[in-house]
Design a protein that fits this description.
Arginase, Chain A; 8-stranded parallel β-sheet; 32% helix; globular; Agmatinase; metal-binding; metal ion binding; agmatinase activity; Ureohydrolase_dom_sf
């Protein structure tokens, strides 16, 4: 896919048309082929772009405006419908092109399995990579009902690739007993239920390191973000999620890529979920793109 080709007709607020000058590239990964409960996250990227129009380009949190950075919205990657293996390779091919241009990747999901090929490509460029994972679910299974390519398995694959001690998980409140045991055995930095306080404790040890940040919208309580495929009660507030992004942005870690996944617009007629997701992406752009 050439970058000038747009699969989605909308672009994120403040996006530049200057690909060459762009410091970061936003792209959508409209895949939900392996979801186990409610499909529909393939419509997330387009709806997040549309919802971005409700927001200002200025962030009072970070005292920064989108005009102060340059980012390009490449639209959605046209994926092979219903074919997880081929779709993941298409994502990997696209991300490799972005990385070869020395641009930061900011991905919009899509189910969480889409993070796996992205991290795999980023890891090739940053062998000392650490991953910050904020989610309701551990996603550390080897398979889901016999299928290794599942939205329940990406962080297991990532842990085995980068090494458990380089994976930091926050906010997890749904997992199997086997996942908990694996997290302990692999020495994963596993912080269930809470996000902000454990982040404050962990970020100093990541200062200066290349970090990939992956956020599942279902880390936020369904009261604040009902539009997701696998809602899990007992989550953090939207305010806490914003605080988490700002903590990472101000921590001194070198964010080399990020994504936000699992927005499923059909389950939120109020549209508060894509509106929240768009605000989170704005803060990630302003906080992570230096």
């Amino acid at each position: 896919m050439r970058f000038e080709e747009k699969y989605s007709g909308n672009v994120f607020i403040g996006a530049s048309t200057d690909l060459e000058a762009a410091q970061a590239i936003i792209y959508g990964m409209p895949m939900d082929w392996t979801v186990s409960f409610r499909p529909g996250s393939r419509f997330g990227p387009a709806r997040i772009r549309e919802a971005s129009l409700v927001h200002e380009e200025y962030s009072h949190y970070l005292e920064r405006e989108l005009s102060e950075i340059t980012f390009y919205d490449a639209g959605d990657i046209p994926l092979a419908f219903g074919n997880p293996e081929r779709s993941l390779q298409q994502i990997a091919d696209f991300v490799r092109k972005v990385l070869d241009l020395r641009k930061m990747t900011i991905g919009l999901g899509g189910e969480h399995l889409v993070t796996w090929p992205v991290v795999r490509e980023v890891f090739k460029d940053y062998p000392d990579l650490a991953v910050i994972h904020i989610d309701a679910h551990a996603d550390l299974r080897t398979d889901y009902e016999g299928e290794p390519l599942s939205h329940a398995t990406p962080l297991r694959k990532i842990a085995e690739l980068i090494g458990g001690p380089n994976l930091y998980q926050f906010g997890i409140r749904s997992m199997t007993k086997e996942e908990v045991l694996f997290a302990k055995e692999a020495n994963i930095h596993f912080h269930p239920f809470d996000v902000v306080e454990p982040l404050k404790r962990c970020l100093p040890e990541l200062k200066g390191r290349p970090v990939y940040v992956t956020i599942d919208i279902d880390a936020v309580d369904p009261a604040h973000a009902p539009g997701t495929g696998t809602p899990e009660p007992g989550g953090i507030t939207s305010k806490e999620m914003l605080e988490a992004i700002h903590l990472i942005a101000r921590s001194g870690v070198k964010v080399v890529g990020a994504d936000l996944v699992e927005v499923a617009p059909a389950y939120d007629h109020s549209e508060q979920t894509p509106v929240l997701a768009a605000k989170l992406i704005r803060e990630m752009l302003l906080g992570f793109v230096k």
